[in-house]
Amino acid sequence: MQKGAIRVQTENIFPIIKKFLYSDHEIFLRELISNAVDATRKLKTLAGVGEFKGDLGDLRIEVRLDTEAGTLTISDRGIGMSADEVDKYINQVAFSGAEAFVKQYKGQDEANMIGHFGLGFYSAFMVSSRVELFSKSWQDAPAVRWECDGSPEFVMEETAKTERGTDIVLHINEESREFLESARIRGVLGKFCRFLPVPIYFVDKESKPDDKPVNNTQPAWIKKPSELTPQDYQDFYRELYPFGEPPLFWIHLNVDYPFNLTGILYFPKIKHSYEIQKDRIQLYSNQVFVTDEVKDIVPEFLMLLHGVIDSPDIPLNVSRSYLQGDPNVKKINNHITKKVADKLEEIFKNDRKAFEEKWEHIALFVKYGMITDDKFFEKASKFHLMQEALPGGKTGPFHTLETYRQEAEALQKNKDGKLVVLYTTDPVQQDSYISDAAAKGYKVVKLDTLIDPSFISQMEPKWEDVQFTRVDADITDNLIDKQEKSESVLSQGQENTLKEIFGLQLPDPHIKVELKGLSADAQPVVVTRGEMMRRMKDMAAAGGPGMSWYGEMPDEITMTVNANHPIFRQVLQENDKDKQGKLVHNLADLALLSQGLLKGTALTDFVKRSVELLEGKSKSRIILEP
């Protein structure tokens, strides 16, 4: 028997503290199973190069729970260790067996080790009052037993173990009794080990042993795209998200230079922003789960995607500071952006109809990316779509900016030479404005999602000579500022009288009344809100940062009175001043109502006034009839 003190140098204790002290305690199981996987893959590597000539046998890993004894055991049939190796890799905490092995067998597939044996092993003491290790080397050496209670003191002696491999027995401490519950262990295995490359079996002494491994050793992302069918990708998505809707499409990542990266990213169906779920991409390192917080690896706008990314260039115990500073992470980020843009462009070019059918689901990705990522913006401008809104709530064809420009700029260029993109945020409520615009030959597009106010504001400086104007931002004749003047059929005196009546009926300082000579077929009164202020209020409503105060500001309304509408000649000829005021007030309220701006007592008063006017009209008819 050998007794001694574990040799931990001062400078080497800090990695243990940083990696484990503040981590979730459940990570211990990931670390120990990762070590078991390493030991198994090392043996396969030795067999592959002819150094190990024995029978590999069943290279499974077992996790055995004994609640009565208070133990959790992790067993493998891998390379095992001799007493000298235990002394080297366990007693000298700073030394990593995986690193030494990789250097010796560099280039062999199985040598791509996932753990750092010395440090990962000591995570066991986060949940254990005592740890025993039983190991027999693949070479001709006596089996060894090692025991430690978490202090620097250990005991190491020969033992009677006959099978190759290593058993690690954790005597779970009182504070960590949760890890003696079967459901808890199954949950941790499902989280961290579901795709490890060696079969893992869970054995609970109190129940029947599992006849199937808890993990899928051949997940779809480690295979070549040519080996997979569309159904394989769909099946893997269901494995990741059992209750999710089928994805729209997917992107298979497979890079080995200048960094290693594999994975599958899925585009989920998203119709509304409230359905957005971030942190659905899982990061793995050689099939070991690392985290689902991939903000610094995946571009922000693609956090909405689902799927898996696997890179051995990212360590298991990853930190935010590491991700932010590592050059490989930046390269991975850029590569993913390019792959997504290329995939979208490919679908757009090869199957435009399918792309248009998916647009309502992928529009959020595309617009978010164009706002936040300049490289993506350059590519996405070619396949970003805007659908035409037609009168009556109908929809028309999709346009890229280029095709919209070709069809609209003849009529929709303003005095500054800018293309005015007319849009609607609510085709039903704004239908009358859409109809008026269509009558002039204008093309209106739908931009009706929560992200569109930000998208519009970001695109105006990025897209050359383009200006966005909501279809109800002004009277139709003024939507495209061409500096054209229109004449009123009313005399100056009649205009002054009409303006005075409107002023008396609408004393609100936030309503600006103006008279214009529009077409006689146009609405008698049109209410508009200035494009920029309304846009700011829309962004505030969508939760834009630092914009909440815009939402509290009153609406600045312009009420345009169409002096050429025949109804105003009747109003001016009305001798009953009270009735004349009510008619004007109702015309103004109808215009406010069309914009959803008539509410509360003002709406109640409008209804009462309308009834009074109708009753008055009926009485007049009764009196006049013989």
From TrEMBL:
Pfam families: HATPase_c_3, HSP90
Domain of life: Bacteria
Keywords (A to Z) from UniProt: ATP-binding, Chaperone, Nucleotide-binding
Gene3D superfamilies, alphabetized: 3.30.230.80, 3.40.50.11260, Heat shock protein 90, C-terminal domain, Histidine kinase-like ATPase, C-terminal domain
Family: Belongs to the heat shock protein 90 family.
NCBIfam families referenced in this protein's UniProt entry, alphabetically: PRK05218.1
Protein name: Molecular chaperone HtpG
Organism: Compostibacter hankyongensis
Name of the gene encoding the protein in the UniProt record: htpG
